[in-house]
């Protein structure tokens, strides 16, 4: 079984993806980490996030087994990731890895921005997770503060709005809800409520 979860930054898709994978005993891939890893490699090399050649080289040399998830979750890396992820050649370099991951038994839960539309268009279940920008900014700011980083909500909200615009307007695999994806708005839901709603969506899709 393949479950595709898409949505904008801080919508809750990553948490939902992990919980669904545990619930159904499937493997989980946060595809955003792939782009964050490319972005970090570009930054570490001294190049700028919009340096196409540096980003392509980093994507082709990616080794997911060496990911430092804590380092990849920084605000600077997240900002840079939205630039490298708009480069068509970077996305192309990572498509194969994602599809192979999804295809291995017993299946997987993948979350990102183009899973249901590009990576796994034939997924058994597609969920598009969203939430109001202000709520997403509050969540992300709280994550930063919990990690001991600066978590100014106004700054985070401005970043999220810019990121939404870049992700939705890019020519390569823009963020959008697949025609057959079920919308899950987590604006007024806590983690448990969001996961429960996602499980109901999966069960409903499997029955039909």
Helix content: 55-70%
Estimate nothing, just give the exact number of structural domains. 1
Total helical elements? 10
Shape, per Cα inertia axes: globular
Strand content: 5-15%
User: Tell me about the biggest sheet?
Assistant: 5 strands, parallel
Average pLDDT: 93
N-to-C order of helices and strands = EHEHHHHHEHEHHEH
CATH fold category name: Rossmann fold
Oligomer, anyone?
A: single chain
Order of strands side by side in the largest beta sheet?
A: 2-3-1-4-5
Cα radius of gyration in angstroms: 16 Å
The N- and C-terminal alpha carbons lie at a distance of 14 Å
Corresponding CATH superfamily: P-loop containing nucleotide triphosphate hydrolases
- Second CATH tier, the architecture: 3-Layer(aba) Sandwich
Count of extended strands: 5
Which segments are poorly predicted (pLDDT under 50) over 5 or more consecutive residues?
Answer: none
Q: Look at the helices and sheets and give the structural class.
A: alpha/beta
Output the CATH class name. Alpha Beta
What are the main properties of this structure?
5-stranded parallel β-sheet, 57% helix, 5 strands, Rossmann fold, single chain, alpha/beta, 208 residues, 10 helices
Q: Which helices and strands, and how do they pair?
A:
Blueprint: E1 2-6, H1 13-24, E2 27-30, H2 31-44, H3 52-60, H4 69-72, H5 75-84, H6 88-103, E3 108-112, H7 115-119, E4 125-130, H8 133-146, H9 153-169, E5 182-185, H10 191-207
Parallel strand pairs: 1-3, 1-4, 2-3, 4-5
Helix pairs in contact: 1-10, 2-3, 2-5, 3-6, 8-9
């Amino acid at each position: 079984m393949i479950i595709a979860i898409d949505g904008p930054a801080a919508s809750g898709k990553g948490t939902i993806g992990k919980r669904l994978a545990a619930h159904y005993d499937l493997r989980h891939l946060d595809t955003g980490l792939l782009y964050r890893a490319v972005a970090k490699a570009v930054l570490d090399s001294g190049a700028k996030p919009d340096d196409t050649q540096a980003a392509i080289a980093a994507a082709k040399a990616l080794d997911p087994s060496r990911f430092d998830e804590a380092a990849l979750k920084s605000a600077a890396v997240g900002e840079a990731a939205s630039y490298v992820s708009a480069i068509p050649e970077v996305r192309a370099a990572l498509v194969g890895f994602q599809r192979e991951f999804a295809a291995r038994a017993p299946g997987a839960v993948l979350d990102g921005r183009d899973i249901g539309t590009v990576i796994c268009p034939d997924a058994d279940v597609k969920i598009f997770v969203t939430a109001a920008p202000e709520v997403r900014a509050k969540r992300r700011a709280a994550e930063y503060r919990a990690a001991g980083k600066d978590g100014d909500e106004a700054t985070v909200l401005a970043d999220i709005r810019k990121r939404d615009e870049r992700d939705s307007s890019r020519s390569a695999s823009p963020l959008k809800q697949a025609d057959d994806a079920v919308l899950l708005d987590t604006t007024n839901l806590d983690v448990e409520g969001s996961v429960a709603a996602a499980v109901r969506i999966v069960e409903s899709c499997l029955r039909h």
